[in-house]
Write the structure tokens for this entry.
Amino acid sequence: MITSAVIFDLDGVLTDTAEFHFIAWQAIANKLDITFDREDNEKLKGVDRENSLKYILSKGNLVVSTTEFEQLLKEKNDQYLTLIDEVNPSHLFDGVLNCFAVLKKSNVKIGLASASKNASLVITKLGIEHLFDFIGDAASVANSKPAPDIFLSVAHGLKVSPKNCIGVEDAVAGVSAIKSANMFAVGIGESQVLTQADLVFPSMSEFDFKRVETAFLLSAT
């Protein structure tokens, strides 16, 4: 078994725009007179925009028309785009560039599998778009995480077999998506939360590709 590619989630793995999502979603919730706190925001990690809004509406037992639903999505995204305008290379997590350098040296392809439709914009602002061999398009897949669609789509774009891929995620839904795609799952965060992950690191600064590859090879025996 060889490692052909490592496929990364974006938010919470390479950078953190979760606070911007929280502010934008909270503004929508306040407008609808629905309570939305940080615990709610944690539940939306790895969840796409449409399903995040459905979650908020369900909290308030609200039903809106399709037109209203689309307008709320637009309002949230407009505010989020305003907030991320300040994102720059300094917002990249420690350890990411070193990790990518190791992967490049090892001839391992690098993919991006984010649920965000703004992922390309964010990685451009971070200054790392040129380091990816393929960037997944969340808008092009039928099902969002925890379905495996985005990870399978990226593997296809990289022209590699899913079984030869390692996925890196910080969210429970994302780790589930990796496992459903028949990939080796590396979690970034707390092991007691990311229980489905094959290996967990507290942060990207502690990500050790040699250790990951060893565990990956052992899992295939």
User: Anything to note?
Assistant: The domain at 18-86 is CATH 1.10.150.240 (DNA polymerase; domain 1). The chain has nine helices and six strands.
